[in-house]
C-alpha cells in the first residue's frame, strides 16, 4: 500500500513538472502567434476598403448570375401546386391510355380472328370487280386501236338523212336566183358543212 502511494505521488509530480516545462515553452510561442494574428488583422482592415472597392463589379456580377441561376427554382416553387396537379393528370392519362390500348388490342385480336374469312371474301370480290373493269377498258382500247377507219373520218352514206338534207339545201340555194346567189350559196354551204362536222363529232363522242 505504501509503495502504491509513493508511485502515485511520483507520477503526479512528474506530470506537474512536464506541464510546467510546456507552459514555459508555449508562452513565447503563444505571444508570437498573437502578435502575428494582430498584425494580419490590422493589414486586412487596411486593405479591405480598397480591395472591396475594386472588387465591387465582380461581386455585383456574381450576385446577378446567382439570381439568374436560382430564378427557375423560385418559379417552380411558386407553381408547385400546378406542377403537382399536371404531373398527376399526366400519369393518370398515361395509365388509362395504356389500359385502353391493351383492351382494344385484345378485343381486335379476338374479333379479327372471327371476321377474317368475311374480310378476305370482300377483298376478293373487290379485286374481281377491279380486274373486270380493267379488262373491259383494255378491250375497248384494243378495239379503238385496231379500227382502220375512225368514226370521225368515216364517209356518210348517200341515203342518210344528213346527205338528203344537204342536197335539198344546195338545190334550194341554186334556185334562189339573183346576183348574190353564188356568194350566199357559198356562205350557206360553209355554215352547213360546219354544222355537219359538229353533228358527226357529237355522234362520235356519244359512241365513246
Automatic annotation (TrEMBL):
<keyword id="KW-0472">Membrane</keyword>
<feature type="transmembrane region" description="Helical">
    <location>
        <begin position="51"/>
        <end position="76"/>
    </location>
</feature>
<protein>
    <submittedName>
        <fullName>Uncharacterized protein</fullName>
    </submittedName>
</protein>
<keyword id="KW-1133">Transmembrane helix</keyword>
<feature type="transmembrane region" description="Helical">
    <location>
        <begin position="24"/>
        <end position="44"/>
    </location>
</feature>
<keyword id="KW-0812">Transmembrane</keyword>
<feature type="transmembrane region" description="Helical">
    <location>
        <begin position="82"/>
        <end position="104"/>
    </location>
</feature>
